């Protein structure tokens, strides 16, 4: 076993790659940071912020940008229009309610496609669609989708709360779409983040068998920390489009994070996404800055600690071969590896850091320096900066010089 392209995942993954890794399988990122990301309570993206994020998403190479909710506000519509006028490579879509007025507004803004959000589970239908019957639901869904189609829009139908829908009705709906040919893609939506990966897999396969020609997208929330796993389950079961957000921003606990799904596809499934991976960390920082939502230091892929090592036994391995503690090289995602000195350090780290900082200290002083590093880290309740470590080493060196 050895690394390939700077990556070294579990060899057992090979057994589960199935068709996800096939070179001719199309798996595209339809990022919704500008729509669901902004639904994170407290987040406001103004037009400049939306334009910056849209440009950055386009630069990494996402297939589609869900740029906002058309009914939300005039500011949003202005921003969506401005994004359309940037003529990015990425397709621009917007969320519409099940109303022709929303579709009209979307068409006038110049978007490529609409996402028709139409609640499907019994609880949503009862409270949001006046307990609409199955027959009326289907006829409205067909009317709305053909209306959007006739306005020249790509049509992505979003049965809101798909994971709590009744399966016979869901099967009937997608069968109708397949017959009518009014829908380009169906988004499977885990609105409350309540599904297991196995359930997502089941739902995706059921829809595929009821409507084999319908393209599928998967959109998962993170209420149980399963959004990325559920998204991958959807992809493995046949969804070719991923609806996710940078930093996992989004309603409540957020969505599957775009960068996590991309790296899982690339590293764990061995499936190239065509995304410029080196720009992921910078994009995460931009979204964090513009949303005002900090990225947790231990966030997968883009967190500051994702490639930092402090524990002595870990560092001893990393310095011989980083793959003892990492599944892929940090530079792939625009990060760097760092060795920190602190309470959990060992002598190997002391020697490494002295050398890295160009500091001279007799080897017999290393254990004393390590003791002082640990004491200082306990006192400060954190790892030490390079300057603090250098101060400790310099002080110890001068004490040793005086006592000789
Ligand atoms: C969870 C999701 O991701 S879905 C997307 C959610 N996104 C947003 O809500 C975006 C921001 N929203 C807004 O700015 C506002 O809610 C607006 C402008 C869209 C609508 O505002 P208002 O007209 O004042 O309606 P309000 O938001 O108070 O209520 C929504 C109404 O739409 C109905 N509704 C909800 N979903 C849908 C739908 N997909 N299609 C049609 N009607 C719907 C609700 O039942 C409710 O109707 P009611 O007043 O008869 O109870
Ligand atoms: O497409 C929709 O219906 C909205 C999707 C959504 O963000 C959700 O329900 O989680």
TrEMBL record:
The keyword Transferase applies. It comes from the Bacteria. It is an enzyme of class 2 (transferase). The lineage of its organism: Bacteria, Pseudomonadati, Pseudomonadota, Alphaproteobacteria, Hyphomicrobiales. This is Homocitrate synthase. GO terms for molecular function: homocitrate synthase activity. Its EC number is 2.3.3.14. Pfam families: HCS_D2 (PF22617), HMGL-like (PF00682). Gene3D superfamilies: 1.10.238.260, Aldolase class I (3.20.20.70). It comes from Microvirga alba. One of its GO terms (biological process) is carboxylic acid metabolic process. PANTHER family: HOMOCITRATE SYNTHASE, ISOPROPYLMALATE_HOMOCITRATE_CITRAMALATE SYNTHASE FAMILY PROTEIN.
């Amino acid at each position: 076993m050895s690394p390939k392209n700077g990556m070294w995942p579990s060899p057992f993954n090979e057994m589960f790659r199935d068709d996800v890794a096939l070179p001719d399988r199309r798996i595209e990122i339809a990022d919704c940071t500008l729509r669901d990301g902004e639904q994170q309570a407290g987040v406001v993206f103004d037009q400049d912020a939306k334009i910056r994020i849209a440009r950055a998403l386009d630069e990494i190479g996402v297939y589609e940008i869900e740029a906002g909710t058309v009914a939300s506000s005039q500011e949003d519509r202005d921003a969506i229009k401005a994004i359309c006028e940037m003529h990015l490579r990425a397709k621009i879509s917007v969320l519409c309610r099940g109303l022709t007025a929303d579709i009209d507004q979307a068409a006038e803004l110049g978007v490529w496609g609409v996402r028709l959000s139409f609640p499907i589970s019994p609880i949503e239908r009862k409270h949001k669609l006046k307990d609409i019957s199955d027959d009326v639901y289907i006829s409205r869904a067909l009317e709305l989708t053909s209306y959007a189609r006739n306005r020249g829009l790509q049509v992505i139908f979003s049965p809101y709360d798909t994971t709590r829908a009744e399966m016979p009705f869901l099967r009937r709906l997608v069968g109708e779409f397949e017959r009518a040919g009014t829908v380009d893609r169906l988004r499977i939506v885990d609105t409350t983040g309540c599904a297991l990966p196995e359930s997502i897999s089941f739902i995706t396969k059921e829809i595929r068998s009821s409507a084999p020609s319908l393209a599928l997208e998967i959109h998962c929330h993170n209420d149980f920390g399963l959004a990325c796993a559920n998204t991958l389950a959807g992809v493995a079961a046949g969804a070719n489009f991923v609806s996710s957000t940078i930093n996992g921003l989004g309603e409540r606990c957020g969505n599957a994070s775009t960068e996590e799904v991309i790296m899982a596809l690339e590293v764990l499934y061995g499936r190239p996404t065509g995304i410029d991976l080196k720009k992921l960390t910078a994009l995460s920082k931009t979204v964090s800055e513009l949303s005002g939502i900090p990225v947790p230091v231990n966030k997968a892929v883009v967190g500051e600690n994702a490639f930092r090592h402090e524990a002595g036994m870990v560092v001893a391995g990393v310095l011989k071969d980083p793959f003892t503690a990492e599944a892929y090289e940090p530079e792939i995602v625009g990060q760097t590896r760092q060795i920190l000195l602190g309470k959990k350090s060992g002598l190997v780290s002391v020697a490494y850091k002295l050398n890295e900082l160009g500091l001279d200290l007799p080897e017999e002083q290393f254990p004393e320096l390590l003791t002082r590093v640990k004491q200082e880290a306990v006192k400060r309740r954190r790892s030490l900066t390079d300057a603090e470590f250098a101060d400790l080493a310099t002080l110890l060196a001068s004490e040793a010089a005086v006592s000789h």
